[in-house]
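Re: [help] complex structure
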Amino acid sequence: MIVAPIDPNHESELRFLLAGMTLRPGVYNPENALVPFQQINTLHFARFVILEDATREDLLAYGEPLAASGKSLALLCDFDGEADHFINRMASAVGPGLIRIFSCCSSPPSLANLVSWLHARSAPASASYVNWVGRTVVQVREEELLHRLLEEQIAALGVENISAREVWNKLKRFVEDEQTTGRITLTPETPTPWGWRIKNILHGIGIPFVLLILSPLILLYLPFFLIQLRIHEKTDPVIAPRPSIAHSHDLSVLEDHLVTNQFSAFGNLKPGPFRRWTITAVFLAIDYTARHIFNRGFLAGVTTIHFARWVFLNDHKRAFFASNYDGSLEAYMGDFINKVAWGLNVVFSNGLGYPKTNWLIKDGAKDELTFKDYLRRHQLPTQVWYNATPELTACDKERNARIRSGLEQSWLSDKALQQWISLL
Amino acid sequence: MAPLSNADYSDMQGLLRFGYGKLTQACFLLLRIDNPVAASSWLKQIPVATAELQNPPPARALQIAFTVQGLQTLGLPEKIINGFSAEFISGMTGEDNRSRRLGDVGDNSPDKWSWGSPGLLPDIAVLIYAESSLFDEWQNTIESQINSSGLTIFHTLSTTDMGDIEPFGFVDGVSSPIVDWERRRDPSGDKLNYENVSMLGEFVLGYPNEYGKYTTRPVLENSSADLPNAEDAPDLKDLGRNGTYLVIRQIDQDVHGFWRFLHEQTGGDAAYAQQLAERFVGRRMSGESLLPQSQNSIEGVGPNADDIRRNQFTFDLDSDGLSCPFGAHIRRANPRNADLPSGTPPSLLGRLSRVLALDKVLNKDPGDLRAGRVASTRFHRLLRRGREYGPMLTHDQREGPPAADEPPSGLHFICLNANIGRQFEFVQGSWLQSTAFDGLRDENDPLLGNRETLGRCPADKFSLPTTGSMRQQIQNIPRFITVRGGAYFFLPGIRALRYIARAGSSS
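Output below.
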């Protein structure tokens, strides 16, 4: 995520520029000439969000001084491959547009220094989630085209009364033929770079290893942690009034244009070192599990999130959360509450004003309406939101990948064949 | 904790507890308030039927509900109105994204409605029910009271007694959640089985809901008003208690278009057309289930034998959708699932391994693509109280062309719920209208779906899984319904109604 403070004299100009990238609020204009994200074929999702802390006065509940009120512009991209490579790519594909937009920020970039300017303003994710690690935009697009061509072919074949195996054989042959004509391209998976693999394995083993070594210390500290936690939980104020009608309206005009929606939220962490170190540990745990366990289509029972990330800002005093999810906000929050309330609690309960938790994981989000108001109140309008495949849910992407995979096998067992044919 | 008080039937409108099925005649009057003072003196003494059992049962009944505009016009202070839910305050047509979610776009968009859109929003809905011999007189009595009380009837929704059949010809109202009136239900913990019983607070404000919480509603501080005390804060007066939200949507049904399409698809084979229609719905026209009865009883189904035969099933029995297609109307309206995917072991370890999907990780088995994609049913239930309108057609008339000048027929869909966003809007938006329901694609509800595409997603197909082969797919399904109007109302408790009336007389 790139974050740059907005020059107050240029804020209205910036909003005008961002609005120019949309057809109407909430709908990205693929024809926009300013920052044509679709020219970057490694980019899944992107957004411009103006970060503005509308809840900063909540800090007064702790007698803390108010944090700075300035606004910043954030650019978030969910992309394939390494960050350095992506930034270079973005700078060469849409550099002039970025410079135009970031010219509304303080100490703006020039064409000469854009890449280093972006690097200098890059705020790393403290934790991130990817629905399917390694699935590229190119793959998603190719597999969607494959699916649509298969559908046409199925209609043309008249498949009624043909056995599943015959269908599979015919479609396999069709795909092979179309690959020679070039109508279908199925780029083979590029092997994961060895460096990344080794790093990933070391990470996968290393973190538990370090924890194991530290476990005596952790066990010793645990009772103190729990006492501190309970003291905090009993005294932390809940600040979750219903968001204003105007705020809800500003958000809702941006929502439900597609089967997928965006979510951006911003808020203060509870002051003091206890919460800060708790959330740091929690982010570490989330990042670890997202990387090594929840990397195949679901996050602890939630299947609708494409990408999500948390970023610390303002010297760890604030946190920003962004996600791309399927369905309505009501459904998204319902999934949170019903399936992963414990997971939300361990993170968001370190946020100022969160509904009261007990023992870090209990209650909290289970206070349904307070939680919904809390999230909605901290949500920010996402001024520009780009989605490379706006017609696809996470489920659609997975289905297409499975259809392809079934066609690339040289043999399917009867059971696998039944599973495969039910995907079409 | 003090023992829970019983549901206070004498302070509730009867519609919460009864469908008034024996009162076969009904009409719904949509009113505008011209003179709040005159209107409130009528509101103070209108004969509203309560939820108490009466012997003999009443031969007529009147119910009343208000839009936010009605409450404002009566002079209810803004501070109190702000205690209602955001959806109610905003209204059914209040936000474009709500219309997009509900499928109220294209030909169904509010600017084409005959009532309910901005400028055509009623203040009050009066629902009148009676036995057929008494109905005309009852309607005349109420209408003349209304006309002399500073109110104007600006739209009348008349109804037709079609027995238990809806206009397409299917038996309707077969399944309904059981309300936990005795307050015995414990909503805590994950429910591992589908249950057809809902907490009272899912349908009546002022009582705990399926989260064990009290849904937000207006409460009054330092008030001596004659209102119930808030159960969760006894020093507050609860304007919401014993009331709920009432949703009305007028839906024209293209009966002839529906059957014509089915006949076209089946080459004029009437029996096959009916079979296909039954797959669209997910039940036989007679209301019988397409699935076999399950061995295990379901809480809230039975003991009535008909109910057991028709409703003692879940879709676990049909995991490949061969009997009841995944996109069938009854699956979308009530997926009959539990809090965790079916087959989750009840032990903590079992649940943990399911959450972490250890089986998937260890076996490298991708598992069922559909698993866990549908939200838990118990948070999304509705009490339906709709009535049909238009001519009652015979089987042959339905399947033939329309008679000259035949008036439209359809459904005044009415439902009651305590949380419009989580209940009505969720069922309508995330289940019925969604092209992504249960991992499906390119299709929404075969009966009620708007076929407008959202983004670039088509919505005009219907897939029928087939044994041992490729699914069959019905394509280019037209839209069979047209929304003609709709609004969100607050159906107050009896004391709350009088309180609202008093607000009007002091305005």
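The CA atoms of residues 29 and 200 of chain B lie 28 Å apart.
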